[in-house]
Amino acid sequence: MKKPVIAIDGYSSTGKSSISKVIAQKLGIIHLDTGALYRGITWFALQNCTGEDRAIDFSRLFSALPQIRLEFKNDDGELILYLNDQNISKEIRTNEVSDHVSLVAKQKEVRDFLLQSQRSLAEKGGIIMDGRDIGTVVLPNADYKFFLTASIDERTRRRYTELLSLGIEADEQQVKENLIQRDRIDSEREISPLRQADDAIVIDNTFLNKKETIDEILSYLNKN
Ligand code: DC
After folding, report:
1. Is pLDDT of 196 > 90?
2. Contact 167, 31 (CB under 8 A)
3. What phi, psi does 32 have (nearest 5°)?
4. Structurally, how many domains does the chain consist of?
5. Looking at the chain, which terminus has fewer C-beta neighbours within 10 angstroms, N or C?
6. What is the pTM of this model?
7. Residue 193 Cα to chain centre, angstroms
8. How many CB atoms lie within 10 A of CB 49?
9. Residue ID of nearest Cα to ligand 1 atom 14
10. CATH number, domain at 171?
11. Mapping DSSP to helix (H, G, I), strand (E, B) and coil, where does residue 171 land?
12. pLDDT number for residue 54
């Protein structure tokens, strides 16, 4: 039997990736965190394509895209992101990357560059992909689509705790502003904006913990 293709979209820090990871383990399917791909390109741009003011020079980035090879390698069940053979899994979580990633993800050239590889990974089935445009653009024919949301204060708390646990210094108010700004840019951009697919199941997990959210998603998967 073909394993399912599952799309999980939603706002930043609703737990999409960590929840998808557990569901993938339970179902024996692959998990692809597509946000990490946009973060990888942003990290590359900050290293290689900035002007004197540290702003990203997009025309330089676009011409450098063919030189970027992003791969996930399996390290004891954990998928680690490599860019041109360098492990960048920690680098992509820094505040500098978070502050720039929505601007990078807004660019048509960047989205086109990542679209085909995301789609081809889903061709054989057996994948859960999380992002912003998975149910609407990347995998419109996914077997299941979920859209996660939660209050801004709860999402700020989660992101702040996550940063501290990664040993990254953070200011709670700044974390909140970054989330608000990212949600705005992601939702208002012209190409593939963050939007709930018409056929997505919406889950507001403001008052649900990780396990409860996972159980709710699994209850829909088990119905069929
Ligand atoms: O899920 P995340 O916070 O790691 O995502 C980082 C950024 O990448 C986010 O601001 C929006 C963008 N993104 C996107 O535009 N499309 C996706 N499929 C995934 C992420």
Report:
1. yes
2. no
3. -120, 115
4. 1
5. N
6. 0.92
7. 13
8. 19
9. 132
10. 3.40.50.300
11. coil
12. 84
Q: Write out the H or E segment, with its range, that includes residue 149.
A: strand 144-149
Sorting pLDDT into bands at 50, 70 and 90, what band is 224? low
The CA distance from 181 to 188, in Å, is 11
Which strands make up the sheet holding 5-10, listed edge to edge? 30-33, 127-131, 5-10, 144-149, 201-204
126 lines ligand 1 (CB under 6 A): no
User: Of the residues 100, 101, 178, which should be mutated to test ligand 1's pocket, given the most ligand atoms within 8 Å of the CB?
Assistant: 101
Span 58-82, pLDDT tens digits: 999 999 999 999 998 887 767 789 9
Q: How far apart are the first and last CA of the chain?
A: 13
Rounded to whole angstroms, what are the CA distances from 212 to 180, 207, 209, 218? 25, 9, 5, 10
| Average pLDDT over every residue of 23-47 | 95
Q: How many Å lie between the centroid of ligand 1 and the Cα of residue 102?
A: 7
Q: State in Å: Cα 38 to ligand 1 middle.
A: 6
**In terms of C-beta distances under 8 Å and separation of at least 24 residues, what long-range contacts does 189-193 make, across chains too?**
189/102, 189/105, 189/106, 190/106, 191/106, 191/108, 191/111, 192/111, 192/132, 192/133, 192/136, 192/137, 193/132, 193/133
The range of the structural domain enclosing residue 111 comes to 5-221
User: Which strand (E) or helix (H) includes residue 26?
Assistant: helix 16-27
